[in-house]
TrEMBL record:
<keyword id="KW-0833">Ubl conjugation pathway</keyword>
<keyword id="KW-0863">Zinc-finger</keyword>
<keyword id="KW-0479">Metal-binding</keyword>
<protein>
    <recommendedName>
        <fullName>RING-type E3 ubiquitin transferase</fullName>
        <ecNumber>2.3.2.27</ecNumber>
    </recommendedName>
</protein>
<dbReference type="Pfam" id="PF21362">
    <property type="entry name" value="Sina_RING"/>
</dbReference>
<feature type="domain" description="SIAH-type">
    <location>
        <begin position="122"/>
        <end position="180"/>
    </location>
</feature>
<dbReference type="GO" id="GO:0016567">
    <property type="term" value="P:protein ubiquitination"/>
</dbReference>
<keyword id="KW-0862">Zinc</keyword>
<keyword id="KW-0808">Transferase</keyword>
<dbReference type="InterPro" id="IPR049548">
    <property type="entry name" value="Sina-like_RING"/>
</dbReference>
<comment type="function">
    <text>E3 ubiquitin-protein ligase that mediates ubiquitination and subsequent proteasomal degradation of target proteins. E3 ubiquitin ligases accept ubiquitin from an E2 ubiquitin-conjugating enzyme in the form of a thioester and then directly transfers the ubiquitin to targeted substrates. It probably triggers the ubiquitin-mediated degradation of different substrates.</text>
</comment>
<dbReference type="InterPro" id="IPR044286">
    <property type="entry name" value="SINL_plant"/>
</dbReference>
<dbReference type="GO" id="GO:0061630">
    <property type="term" value="F:ubiquitin protein ligase activity"/>
</dbReference>
<dbReference type="InterPro" id="IPR013083">
    <property type="entry name" value="Znf_RING/FYVE/PHD"/>
</dbReference>
<comment type="pathway">
    <text>Protein modification; protein ubiquitination.</text>
</comment>
<comment type="similarity">
    <text>Belongs to the SINA (Seven in absentia) family.</text>
</comment>
<dbReference type="GO" id="GO:0008270">
    <property type="term" value="F:zinc ion binding"/>
</dbReference>
């Protein structure tokens, strides 16, 4: 099959390879003989179907592109169709093409390509987030669906100039070991002073080593500063039901903000929040760029447990 417009660098080859378990799928005889051949090899005197045997019956497949639909380039999944000339298409493309093969115009959709359906199930690849700590290994045809969910768990280090990203526990540990000096401590449920330089914008708060990172951020608007608190945590998980309170006081002026929810973010964003922030007009700040406020991070009052207590 042609290589359809893909580049193949060294890294790419590694990224685009997978392990094929059940190598006998590719032996002469195809589907009919597959069963007897597997039995045959297991019945050979002295051979057992142990873990070693599984390894012995696996191989590495380079050019995983071969397992992508040649029309839409998505990984092929069951059912896979072919025309009488052997051109293949995924089920979605088959419907879009009104069951007409784009290569030879013969009908497409009457014949399944059963051997390729077996192959896309049997080729095992690591999740694309392996570098972030995901240990999942999946059938090639299930990779995309898994990665859509898995991507929402990857967090990016909030330290400026740091490109580290990982799953949450690794990210929290990384922050403690590499950037602890630039974070501030707090105690859950208590008010603590927080000094934020309105030009530096970001203050990272961590209760103890290796625990979640809270991001106190200020945004300079036309007439004042917007201050918000988010938690760096996977968006797909309902880990914490947290709220926060902010107090800023200067002389007789007092600004407060109480929030019963905290937005989970995967990375620090420099776009000003449109909801859930405290606003302090410039006229209420002194000349210094450092604003001293009080922050309390606590359980959300909307939390069912607390209401019953
Ligand atoms: Zn397709
Ligand atoms: Zn065709
Ligand atoms: Zn994953
Ligand atoms: Zn970092």
């Amino acid at each position: 099959m042609e290589n359809l417009g893909r580049t193949t660098s060294g890294d790419d080859v590694i990224a685009r390879s997978g392990t094929l378990l059940g190598h006998d799928l590719l032996q002469h005889g195809g589907l009919e003989q597959q069963h007897t051949q597997r039995l045959g090899s297991m019945e050979t005197p002295g051979e057992t179907a142990s873990g070693d045997d599984v390894i012995a019956r696996s191989g590495t497949l380079f050019a995983l592109d071969l397992l992508d639909c040649p029309i839409c380039f998505n990984p092929l999944a069951t059912p896979i169709f072919q025309c009488v000339n052997g051109h293949i298409a995924c089920c979605t493309c088959c419907a879009k093409l009104m069951n007409k093969c784009p290569s030879c115009t013969l009908p497409l959709g009457n014949y399944r390509c059963l051997i390729l359906e077996k192959v896309v199930e049997a080729v095992i690849v690591p999740c694309g987030n392996a570098k972030h700590g995901c240990l999942e290994k999946l059938s090639y045809c299930k990779k995309l669906a898994h990665e859509k969910v898995c991507d929402s768990y990857v967090l990016h280090c909030p330290a400026p100039e740091c490109n580290y990203s990982a799953f949450h526990l690794d990210l929290y540990r990384h922050y403690t070991s590499c950037h602890k000096a630039s974070s501030s401590r707090f105690r859950c449920g208590q008010y603590d002073d927080a000094l934020i330089n309105i030009r530096e914008q970001v203050l990272v708060l961590q209760e103890y080593d290796d625990l979640p990172l809270f991001i106190l951020q200020s945004f300079m608007g036309a007439h004042g500063v917007h201050v918000a608190v988010n938690v760096l945590a996977p968006s797909a998980q309902g880990l914490w039901e947290l709220g926060y309170d902010l107090i800023y006081q200067r002389g007789n002026e007092r600004f407060t903000h109480e929030s019963e929810e905290m937005t989970r973010i995967q990375r620090v964003s420099f776009e000003a929040p449109v909801v859930n922030y405290m606003y302090i007009p410039y006229s209420s700040l002194d000349e210094s760029l450092v604003v001293k406020m009080q922050i309390r991070i606590r359980k959300s009052r909307g939390d069912g447990e607390e209401e019953e207590a």
